[in-house]
Amino acid sequence: MRPLEFRNLTLGYGSRILLDHVSASIDAGQLVALLGRNGTGKSTLLRAVTGLEKPLDGEIRLFGRSLRETTPQELARKVSFVATEKIRIANLTCCEVVGLGRAPYTDWLGRLLAGDRAVVERALAIVGMGDFADKALDRLSDGEVQRVMIARALAQDTPLILLDEPTAFLDMPNRYEVCTLLRRLAHEEGKCILFSTHELDIALTLCDSVALIDPPRLHLLQTEEMVRSGHIERLFHSDTVAFDADTRKITMRK
Amino acid sequence: MSEDFFQKQIPGFRLVNRSSEIRPKFLFGLLSILVAALFVCDLTSGAVGVGLHDLWKILRGAPCDPATRDIILKIRLVKALVALLAGVALAASGLLMQTLFRNPLAGPFVLGISSGASLGVALFLLGAPLLGVAGHSLVLGLGTVGAAWIGAASILLLIMVVSRRIKDIMVILILGMMFGSAVGALVEILQYLGNEAALKTYVVWTMGSLGDVTAAQLALLAPAVLIGTVLTIAVLKPLNLLLLGERYACTMGLNVARTRSLIFVATTLLSGTVTAFCGPIGFVGLAVPHLARMLFRSADHRILMPASMLLGMAMLLLCDLLSKRTALPVNTLTALFGIPIVIWVIMRNRSIV
Predict the structure, then answer these.
(1) Residue A156 and residue B20: Cβ atoms within 8 Å?
(2) Whole-angstrom distance, CA of residue B301 vs CA of residue A143
(3) How many angstroms separate the CA of residue B275 from the nearest CA in chain A?
(4) Cβ B17–A79 below 8 Å, yes or no?
(5) Does B256 touch chain A (CB under 8 A)?
(6) Is B250 on the interface with A (CB under 8 A)?
(7) Would you kindly state where each structural domain of chain B is located, as residue ranges?
(8) Cα of B135 to nearest chain A Cα, Å
(9) Which residue among B1, B15, B353 sits closest to A189, beta carbon to beta carbon?
């Protein structure tokens, strides 16, 4: 059973169709980058998988079950999410934020039991933030905050993790480190990870597959096939830049 | 990730260190003692001095001077209890709104919710005599509360609708102030049209007082604040999730719509009721949660909420004590205490988000 499957999925707002009857599926243990030009519906697609956007037609299936038949509480145990926005809350410590990820499993007051605490500790250790447990979120750098937010998603203990442009505010080394971390989580923890990004470079070097929005279609191919397919050349093409399939880089036209 | 990696990474690693567990307990103990001490001071001080010994005799029900007993039980005790309830209600509603709107400058007064309650009360106090329905004191009391609830709820609803569309918190604050001013203008028109006796009742109400509440009204104030507090306790976990924003809260399985409604009802009950009985008391709801954050160094509502409630009680008891000494209205004193805290908050977070 596939963690995530789109069946004839149509997304859009009113008369504006972003994706038109697309079908695709993602396997467990895979890191998948979601690419596409601005305004082609990357965020809308991620919102739809978290249940925040209703499909106009078709369906999204999680482990063989339609999203329509899944309650928000069940969904919270299957899909976790990391947003683009910077979370900076004074006095909120890393382990408290990560502890919030246990919300689907805790009681009405959100008390963490010994088991929950162990999960939180482990999640922080995995993202390399074990020593920062008692540090407040507003004292961390952007890269560190993003790691903590990934740890929060890990603590939620979901087989599927979605990230909306997780590298948007990060510098170059941090971008690679965060994406390497995601790759490790996919391969070693068996998570299915889908993240939207504009980093063609990272997508093509670190990801197992690439989902490319070619409005109103969606191409989901293994990274190698995607490079050879010619879709990238066609979509990331303008008078000033071009994609070179051999070097996998976007270059300025001479 | 294998088990031994986990073991290697965290030998003797403690998730919760000792000091962060002791600090809140110590502070809660200290604050409780402070509130109790202020409560006793509030009972003993006033025009007629009552010693601690006499106070104990009266509270115990032992025989003593009937005049002193009446002063303590019928006036000061009611007033002190009103101060406790108002402190809890205003501080809790302030924290609820700051988290709901993710805005450190939100509060019942700033967002115009107190003004909404004022408009309701003004419409009732000034408008009812024009229609010839006022008269009986019970009708007056119930009508004032009902009108304040409706007024507070309408403004809150308006702000919630606007905040769905507009995410910029400064815009929402400015809109809150605009609503407040618009309400002020409407109230002035009502004042102009209203008759003299009704006008006086209204003006006295706007001055804000903890002492105008009768024991009978306390029987309405207390349950309303109690229900509001119970609802507040029920949303402590959702409030923590909302710290990360609605989107995160939603993906963690929170029913955001239901939580919003609960917070809405709680805020209306808490700030609307207190405003109805005590008049618009500003800056408690805005400043007290920041005091709590500063003292407890926490963002966890399971700590912040009780801390704010205790601090709110302490602040209103203190203001009541001072208002007895200086004869200044309570809302003047809360403003004098609250405004420096608010300015400090603005100066500290240069960018308010």
Answers:
(1) no
(2) 27
(3) 30
(4) no
(5) no
(6) yes
(7) 48-347
(8) 47
(9) B1
Query: Please, are residues A58 and A254 in contact by the beta-carbon 8 Å criterion?
Result: no
Residue B64 structure tokens: 């003593």
Residue B7's closest chain A neighbor by CA?
Answer: A122
Residue B10: band (very low, low, confident or very high) from pLDDT cuts 50, 70, 90:
very low
**ipTM entry:** 0.92
Q: Count of A–B CB contacts within 8 Å?
A: 96
pTM, 2 dp: 0.89
CA distance A211 to chain B (A): 22
Mean pLDDT of chain B: 84
Q: Taking CA B294 as the corner, what is the angle to CA B288 and CA B297, rounded to the nearest 5 degrees? A: 125
B15-20 mean pLDDT: 48
Tell me the pLDDT of chain A averaged across its residues.
92
**B298: closest chain A residue by CA:** A91
* The pLDDT value given to residue B349: 66
Domain B48-347 has CATH 2.160.10.10: no
CB B102 within 8 A of CB B245: yes
Q: Three-class SS of residue B245? A: coil
Q: Among partner residues B5, B17, B253, which is closest to A73 by beta-carbon distance?
A: B253
Residue of B nearest to A49 (CA): B251
Residues B62-115: tens digit of each pLDDT = 888 888 888 888 889 999 999 999 999 999 999 999 998 888 888 887 778 888
Is B20 at the interface with chain A, CB within 8 A? yes
Of the partner residues B234, B244, B253, the one whose CB lies closest to the CB of residue A75: B253
